[in-house]
Design brief:
The protein is an all-alpha fold and 64 residues long. Helices cover 70% and strands 0% of the residues. The chain has 2 helices and no strands. The protein has helices spanning 9-23, 27-56. The longest helix is centred in the middle third of the chain and has 30 residues, at 27-56. It is flat and about 45 Å long. It holds the Pfam family NblA. It comes from Drouetiella hepatica Uher 2000/2452. This is NblA/ycf18 family protein.
Length: 64
């Protein structure tokens, strides 16, 4: 686990493509996009938490 995690070549290409798309956004578009991205990140975290609890058999009735 001492090795730094790096992006694959495909991910690096995708990042550069995304970078060029963002450069052409207006301020309002960028702000709206960031809010949507943050929401998606939170949903992803919630799904991972749910899947891990299910996989580990530690699901409870609460939504934490």
């Amino acid at each position: 686990m001492n090795q730094p995690i790096e992006l694959s070549l495909e991910q690096q290409f995708s990042l550069r493509s995304f970078e060029s798309q963002v450069e052409h956004m207006s301020r309002e578009q960028a702000q709206h996009f960031l809010v949507q991205l943050y929401e998606q990140m939170m949903l992803k975290e919630t799904m991972y938490r749910h899947f891990l609890k299910h996989q580990w058999g530690i699901e409870t009735g609460s939504q934490t």
